[in-house]
Specification:
alpha/beta, 43% helix, Rossmann fold, 4-stranded parallel sheet, 341 residues, 2 domains
């Protein structure tokens, strides 16, 4: 089925696989944000779902030299003040939680910037003169993650809150990603296609993805992908926290475990994190389904992180096709939003 290009074309009506193939090009997009140097004691980023993913990635790479918090809520932390750089991110520009958080940040007189493709958020940014990173529209938020990452880094470089070298690093990883994508395309047979092979292992199962601190953002993106693309329930957790509670859950109930465990284990993780994966797998043998281990490729953290995200994109899209579904529509989410009105 996964090597039947006619079937793939018919099911993937909005060309999600084509978007994944070109995702690395998003890192080359130029944003005119008109930002200026900001003095900030902390950074707060408000966003939901796919609109928060760029911020999550940035906690692993490049990381921050001051407190950084992601807000997935209507309210912002009590410490937000004039000394906060506040970023409101919503792909549609109409996410109610983010608009509520922005309203509170405005009342606290925080320094504000906006990432969006339009909607109310863009209108507010223009009216208030906030730095605005305008994303290209027309795709699902989860497919625009690399746009979001480039926008976030452009804003932070412009404010002086991260070093300008991060933009160079993003550009340098483009070649690696374009090469990696070439081996994951629908035209590459299952026998040589890692994404198709993983998808076949996951079909019909609930997926549980684990990563260490460096790869957790990629693991979280895999979780989102399985849920939204494949409409296949998935969960995520992080080592070492896993060892302090969740590992016990695998030892007894339920007896039947229709799960697929995926472990994203980078050689750039702390040596003790790598040891924890090894020991946990040994002790849980026979209790937890044998994990499918994905070892991120690439010589840099950024290569490994973004390359693993791209792999997960293709895995979930192939799972969707195996499930007989079109990966792009999220009709239940749209129905839910309508019911909230």
């Amino acid at each position: 089925m996964l090597d039947d290009l006619k079937y793939i074309h018919e099911r993937d009506s909005e060309d999600a696989l084509g978007i994944a193939e070109k995702s690395w090009q998003q890192l080359e997009h130029k944003f005119d944000t008109a930002s200026q140097v900001v003095k900030a004691d902390n950074i707060v980023y408000a966003g939901m779902g796919g609109s928060a993913l760029a911020a999550l990635i940035s906690t692993s790479w490049p990381g921050y030299d001051r407190p950084f918090e992601i807000v997935r809520n209507y309210h912002i932390p009590a410490y937000v003040s004039k000394n906060t750089f506040f970023i409101a991110s919503s792909y549609s520009g109409n996410t109610e939680e983010t608009l509520s958080a922005l309203d509170e940040a405005m009342s606290r007189e925080a320094s504000i910037a906006v990432i969006t493709s339009g909607g109310k958020l863009a209108d507010i940014a223009r009216a208030q003169g906030y730095p605005l990173a305008l994303l290209p529209g027309g795709i699902q938020p989860r497919y625009a993650v690399f746009y979001g990452l480039k926008a976030l880094m452009t804003l932070l470089v412009g404010t002086g809150l991260v070093e300008s070298s991060v933009e160079t690093q993003l550009q340098q990883t483009v070649g690696y990603l374009s090469s990696k994508v070439s081996g994951l395309l629908p035209s590459v047979a299952t026998s040589s296609n890692r994404a198709k092979q993983i998808a076949l292992d996951c079909v019909g199962k609930s997926v549980v993805i684990y990563g260490g601190p460096a790869m957790y953002p990629a693991a979280y993106k895999w979780k989102i992908n399985f849920n939204e693309n494949a409409k296949q329930i998935a969960w995520v957790n992080q080592f070492p926290e896993f060892n302090h509670n969740e590992m016990l859950g695998w030892t007894k109930q339920p007896i039947d475990k229709p799960y697929k465990v995926i472990e994203l284990i980078s050689d750039l993780e702390h040596p003790r994190i790598q040891k924890r994966f090894e020991v946990a797998s040994r002790l849980l043998s026979g209790s937890m389904p044998e994990p499918l281990i994905v070892k991120p490729e690439g010589s840099t953290l950024l290569d490994q992180l973004l390359g693993t995200i791209v792999l997960g994109d293709f895995v979930s899209l192939y799972c969707s096709l195996l499930n007989g579904l079109d990966p792009t529509p999220v009709e239940l989410i749209e129905k839910f939003k309508k019911a909230l009105e």
